Amino acid sequence: MTENLVYDTYQPTLNELRYTFGGHEPVRGLKPGEVLTLYTEDCFGAAVHGIDDLPSKVCEMPYLNGVTGPFFVAGAEPGDTLAVHFLDIEPARDWGVSATFPHFGALTSTHTTATLQAPLEERVWRYDIDTAARIVRFQARNSDFSIDLPLAPMQGTVGVAPAGGQALSTITSDVHGGNLDTPEIRAGVTLYLPVAVHGALLALGDGHARQGRGEVSGVAVETAMRTTITVDVLKGVTTSTPRIETDDMLMSIGCARPLEDAARTAGADMVAWIAELTGLDTLDAYQLIAQAGDTTVGNVVDPAYTMLAGMPKRLLGGTVIQQGVHDRLRSTPWPPAPGGGAS
Amino acid sequence: MTENLVYDTYQPTLNELRYTFGGHEPVRGLKPGEVLTLYTEDCFGAAVHGIDDLPSKVCEMPYLNGVTGPFFVAGAEPGDTLAVHFLDIEPARDWGVSATFPHFGALTSTHTTATLQAPLEERVWRYDIDTAARIVRFQARNSDFSIDLPLAPMQGTVGVAPAGGQALSTITSDVHGGNLDTPEIRAGVTLYLPVAVHGALLALGDGHARQGRGEVSGVAVETAMRTTITVDVLKGVTTSTPRIETDDMLMSIGCARPLEDAARTAGADMVAWIAELTGLDTLDAYQLIAQAGDTTVGNVVDPAYTMLAGMPKRLLGGTVIQQGVHDRLRSTPWPPAPGGGAS
Amino acid sequence: MTENLVYDTYQPTLNELRYTFGGHEPVRGLKPGEVLTLYTEDCFGAAVHGIDDLPSKVCEMPYLNGVTGPFFVAGAEPGDTLAVHFLDIEPARDWGVSATFPHFGALTSTHTTATLQAPLEERVWRYDIDTAARIVRFQARNSDFSIDLPLAPMQGTVGVAPAGGQALSTITSDVHGGNLDTPEIRAGVTLYLPVAVHGALLALGDGHARQGRGEVSGVAVETAMRTTITVDVLKGVTTSTPRIETDDMLMSIGCARPLEDAARTAGADMVAWIAELTGLDTLDAYQLIAQAGDTTVGNVVDPAYTMLAGMPKRLLGGTVIQQGVHDRLRSTPWPPAPGGGAS
Amino acid sequence: MTENLVYDTYQPTLNELRYTFGGHEPVRGLKPGEVLTLYTEDCFGAAVHGIDDLPSKVCEMPYLNGVTGPFFVAGAEPGDTLAVHFLDIEPARDWGVSATFPHFGALTSTHTTATLQAPLEERVWRYDIDTAARIVRFQARNSDFSIDLPLAPMQGTVGVAPAGGQALSTITSDVHGGNLDTPEIRAGVTLYLPVAVHGALLALGDGHARQGRGEVSGVAVETAMRTTITVDVLKGVTTSTPRIETDDMLMSIGCARPLEDAARTAGADMVAWIAELTGLDTLDAYQLIAQAGDTTVGNVVDPAYTMLAGMPKRLLGGTVIQQGVHDRLRSTPWPPAPGGGAS
User: Fold this and answer.
1) Which residue of C108, C114, C116 is in closest CB contact with A116?
2) Model ipTM?
3) C265–D111: do the CB atoms touch at under 8 Å?
4) Is D336 domain-assigned?
5) CB < 8 Å to A304, chain D
6) How many domains is chain A built from?
7) Which range of residues forms the domain containing residue D309?
8) What is the C-alpha to C-alpha distance for residues A43 and C43, in angstroms, rounded to an integer?
9) pTM score
């Protein structure tokens, strides 16, 4: 496979960013095994540079969270599963921004958790990102307090075109993926998404230099990313909610409100997955996840919250998972060997 | 106005039904003041005729709840409000059907309120509809019990194209309207929707011969309808969530999960509406709705639940509401005078 | 039965108000068929007389919503059902009060729907109550707006001692009843509660001159009441959630969060009740309630929200309901004949 | 301090287990600094020994989750904070049990998330506990699958008497603590609870040999524990929701439904705590927790779900936390030196 490895790059203009999953023509093709380094803009479309750039002033609603793509994946047809492996996610800038955004976040009233209270003050924080030292620096706005936090790059938004001719805002998530906003989508992991249209139409964006689990203010350390992916297609393998595989863990992602329904969606999918992999019956698999699995928060802020049900792979007895695609994609040479692989 | 009244009709083929709000070209234009009698197919696309036609077998997922339209409303631009007045909603058949649908409904686990339990039995009920006697007849499937219920025709699904290039399934609802599934959308009322695209692109469907409040099984007495509407455009009047005006009541509709968020969305909008109409400050308006208003259930089954906040108009002191459009449209001659008005 | 009718009265001092269901000795006995006129204080313990009496200043937390009782019901044992019939609920004052209370209500953040926003302004409204004209008068605080609203007296809080040795705050509700805050608890209806302890230990309070459905500000038109009840015990009839019977309707009450769970609790109980009364199987009963029943809001503000599932009795075919106790208690002579019945 | 250390033990009989927080006389006193090793019975009151002991048959409802205590803490008065430090939590048996319990758990309908579906099969699992090897062994019921899981002993239920004369079931949780069911309550941590009554009346039980995060089946690996605690009282320090301090982390615990409200309760408390410790203003503290804090699941099954908001102590700049009580209690000699300390 490494013989013919193709390494390519793609960078959209701001005008080429897309604000829905579905409803758009592909910007280019992507073959299984091809390695693509793409650029994703931050969730504010590069409009927020500093503390005086209030998002509600400098951004045009609802055009937030623009994604790069969509990419037409050769061979992907409805009923298949798309495996998206992240070889690398690295900040493309040495700074990021965060903000409170009016009526958005876990600790504020919102457009649906509507109250009569005034919104919180809108405030922007700018973070220095040091990719060499692997830190981002928090600097308080109203005091001298500052602290270095570990750099932990991730992609907030990854999805495919949804079923039924829908075009869904990149602000929300559902079975097609979307704004999952969970720190698990980092380099080294494989994300499984259900293909609903010819070519899957993968798109991604919304890089975070880091986020706390829950992303409680609704905005992470937002920055542009250079992200390197490679994909594969699992023919005839259906997927009913997004799943993640890491070297150690399997995770199912539920996207729903209220938050317990996100947990239920994830948990029921993980029970089914464990049962399929181990031969355990449903109740035995339920029992195993209850004692050995984890229910983990993605975000509690987006139109659909996300929760993950996770299970360590070592507890499942060595079965081949998803046709071994994670290990296969994980072994893709990255960075490319000197002098080799350029397209 | 009655001088130039245009009465027209429109009936789509099954292939012309649409399954998203947004993402479609208009099927025809609709001028303010024009009277259009249109045909809406039932939510099953006429595929369920009797108790042996299980929806999960005879329907193709996710193509349920097809709507008629979209109609391009002359003069409607983003930032305006579309007023849709229902002159008439009458069953187009002498029968309707209902069903339990696997993993759909308030008293079953669902795809997001996921459990490990087996789904409920899928079962179909066929109702005779007697438009002369104004009744629908419930006949139990597993006993001789039968009972006549009042015919109360309504349209479950009415909406416009949403903002931001979205194309949203006709199964759900949001600020654009959609699958509101509330019995208030009956003849004699005016529905206000926010225009988000040039021409609004109004579409409607999902007629119910009647439904209980909450629509707890997820499926009403579904039937085809002949529905007569007339529309107007309120230029420069913004709408943030669907509203209804009847001869006696104002209602705001919230679409969200959990159900309390639907109530909050509706309530906050009604407080703002009352304040605007009466000059009450926010807390006085809140107090008035707390004692004199109603929080009412639309549905507790769809992907977005709906709740209504209602206020009797007589308590608001005779202010002109929405430029008087409800009274104006309500006075449209219907049925048309003999010999007059047909296009 | 009218031969031996006993009419009695009971009025507690402020010190005799109780703030939990459970945990208290009975204040007196109450025999089935006896007619008791009791006094209930308003939810603020008579501490709020006018617009300058802010509840957070004049009341001592958490001692709100004090109830009158508990009453030891002769013959009531765990596993029975207590039927509480309301012969009369009349304001004991010619004024009532309402308020915004910090972090309480549907359109504000609360202690559990916690946000970082400042609480709403605390404000009190005083209502004149005219029992002859049957009106309560709303007077805005920040304008001259005023309006007469229909007097519609009801009891917000009615319950028995809960199971398992619990003592539950009178602010919340559960299967034992409690702060149901639903306008259905008015004169002429019968409330069914599950007996969990010897003597049931019935208590009630929190009279409302009226409330909007949902009680969205969290505080109704609060006033003292003279309330006349008579009770009966249904031996061996179990009750799993509070139920109401009126002349026309059956209703099950669900007490839970989120609000859809209150609807589910109520709906599932009503399906079971319909099935029991009509012989319909579960799915047929579910279908009937979906088309002919109602899902109705009690309150969306208390620690447990309440929702009601209602069904018209006339649709159920004339079966005897709860041993006919509602009709029996409803026929109690009230007011007592001149010269007769006083104890 | 170590000079006068008192080491004592307490073991209740089954009849001395308590099923509410509040409503009970103390079983004994507990002085700050005293070290008490107590015995807690499993949540089934030792009635489930093996796979044939179905809890719904062998246990008497609602008497589950019995706690040991309450203990009268000398010097604790309303308005203080009780610090409970866990020196040791060790299984008192070499086996534990788990189960599916009808209508209880995250992946089943429940009494409030009520559906018309049949409950899941009730099934019991017995686990061997090897305290030397620090493992518990899962053995599937319907196959040969078995796997060793790490022993991770914790206490599911810890609380004090609640305010206002309430007596709350040990099945639920609230600001008084209770059935928190979160794996953080393990040896080495300090739990902070608000004192609401004279002497606090601390009680605890419900030991788990381990649980997955979320405890999705509703039942962990339940076993009896020998648990060693020492307490202190923070005079005049108020606590509005339970908090945990470990060597590395601060955590606030929210107890509520829906699950997002548990997250909001925890998050808002942590923002306030961070602001108090660092001098950050509210929005700066919110921003810091959004990027550096964690929102973590306790349980998604109990009548009140639990969520934790956590923050690493090292990010807070070395401030003294809660008067240094965690470090002080953490340094208590345990196990006691040979020959020393016995009472």
Assistant:
1) C108
2) 0.97
3) yes
4) no
5) none
6) 1
7) 2-330
8) 49
9) 0.97
